[in-house]
Amino acid sequence: MSKKNRVNVIGAGVVGLSTGLVLQKNGYKVKIIAEHWPGDLSINYTSPCAGAYFSSNFLFDERCKKFQDISYKTLWELSYINDTGVIRIPNFDFYAKDPHIDSETLLKDIYYKFQVLPKHELPKNVEYGVSFTTDVPKYLRWLLNQFTSAGGVTQKAHLNHLNDAFEPDVNFVINCTGINARTFCGVEDDKVFPTRGQIVIVWAPHIKFAKSLHEEEGAYTYIIPRKSGEVILGGTMDVNNYDGTPDSKTAESILNRCIKLCPELSGVKILRHVVGLRPSRKDGIRLETEIRQNSVGKDVMVCHNYGHHAYGYITSWGSAIEALDLIESSVSNQKEARL
Q1: How many distinct structural domains can be found in the chain?
Q2: 257: annotated binding-site residue?
Q3: Distance between CA 137 and CA 313 in Å, rounded?
Q4: Where would I find the FAD dependent oxidoreductase domain in this sequence (predicted)?
């Protein structure tokens, strides 16, 4: 692919960084423009706050299932590289009520060592459970380093409008603005809404497995260890809640639920409380293209890639490759039109 095809990616969350890296490694000249970068903390910068692990949440959308498959296989390979921050751990997902889903058909071909747990191995008051070996990616800095090492360019800036990314020599703009797509001028997608998540981060290096419990009325408890010895305890799913301040009663509830699920957490040291806004979207992920014009009347292809809800890490690589395919198709069509 010719280097003359310049791409600006807006947003440096896990989706933006993954998309930028895939494009840069496939011959495009990419610049990522973002106000927030790995190491920054902001209620509008979701990726650093994410639990960031694969669970057995059933993604019925066939496109999302494809993205999940691609991302899992990619991250599995990355887990063999020491500096990525991706690790493999045993994972146990429990359901208070049997979801009556053929999970083996849905997930067996995706997850390593996937199995439905027999009834006698389930905790009290749990009707269904699965186990598999999963990845816990905390690797935004690694993605950024890979991107810049491959020749990618970064720009720390606050854009007021989508058109601000339409530089004269840019052929493509990838919109990975996440939760900000709701208010970002030129996009203003009213289907985007926040799903607030609160977590408690504790020091528990003895925890070497992930556990989660799906209860009735949407309650969701999870325990996710990091390679560093920190453990993420969650969580909440508060729709249309923008409050970035941790709530003490919620934190207490999270701790109690996690200790009940995993007694080995009793007495652990609390390190900090974190709140993030999942970039949810009615109708799911928006991954599509449109043609707009820059200030001198040149056509610019805009590829939207946002609305990943709680599945940004799970779908990041798959959606990045889909964005690449959409751009490649556009380039091929343009060549055919000139012939």
Answers
A1: 1
A2: no
A3: 8
A4: 7-321
Q: Does 46 appear as a known binding residue?
A: yes
Residue 216, judged by CB atoms within 10 A of its CB (0-12, 13-18, 19+), counts as exposed
| 278 marked ligand binding residue | yes
Q: Which phi and psi angles does 100 have, rounded to 5°?
A: 55, 50
Q: Is the pTM of this model over 0.70?
A: yes
Task: Find the CATH number of the domain harbouring 46.
Answer: 3.40.50.720
> 111 lies in a domain?
no
Supply 163's token pair.
Answer: 């058109």
Token reading at 150: 């491959």
Q: How far apart are CA 94 and CA 207, in angstroms?
A: 17
β-strands 112-116, 128-135: how paired? antiparallel
Is 236 among the annotated ligand-binding positions?
no
| Residue 272 annotated in ligand binding | no
> In sequence order, which ranges of 26-99 are alpha helices (DSSP H)?
62-78
